[in-house]
Amino acid sequence: MKGAAYVKRLELLFGAYKHMNAFMSCGVQEFRIISADEKRYRAEFEVTKDMVNPIGSLHGGCSATLLDVGCAASAFIRGKVVLSINQEVTVVSGAKLGDTVYMDIELIRLGKTQCYTRGEIVKKADQKMVAFGTCTYTVPPTRVLPESAHSLISQLTQIQ
To answer: Helix H segments across 94-141?
Structure first.
């Protein structure tokens, strides 16, 4: 599969997330997929008022959620639903309301029962790292997934 197909799959997935609920949309409606290949992708977005803490900086919990949703997407676009079992996130600097940041996501390993990923959020203007982390997921048996997950996976895997 070529990079363009991964980009299309990510755009379809994040488009579907917009309509699920406020938690799953958590800023992904702002994502612009910059590049994608079989192991990595980059998404760019602006920090919005829904993402900041009372002092106007990207909230650490929002950074963790963005990394979790972003890392899980690296498995989902390959036809696997994953569920979080461990996440470690470190916030090292701030990003202010209106800043453009990018998120680099790497799929380290996607196996039959577990998935390992890592990601970074970086300010575009000065290349300062905002947050980084790793996410570990379990891959549940497909028989326990709801029909909506099967339907979305089917749509994603049709994009070649």
So the answer is: none
